[in-house]
Amino acid sequence: MSNIPACPQCTLENTYQDGDNYVCADCGYEWPMTEAAQAGEDAGAVVKDANGNVLNDGDTVTLIKDLKVKGSSITLKVGTKIKGIRIVGGDHEVDCKTDAGSFMLKACYLRKS
Fold it and tell me: What is the DSSP secondary structure assignment for residue 55, as one 8-state letter?
């Protein structure tokens, strides 16, 4: 079993080390090895929603604000329920799937249902 982390962009595990960087063979994303070490430390951090409730993998959440998706005409509407979230490291702490697709969201725009 390799200790090389999964890609932070596409979350696939087909990654390899290239000098001081990790590279994803699937999407081509490159990131420094030091950033991956920090992400591993952040993964143990507690993630809280807009009301201060602790979020866990598999929780159901609701959007508290309309969110425009960068680079497209999609808008995630307030009140949209999202089931089965996954907590990940980084500034967008929540990985989820909606009818509009897969997204990484900030926990400050979510409320635990």
Answer: P
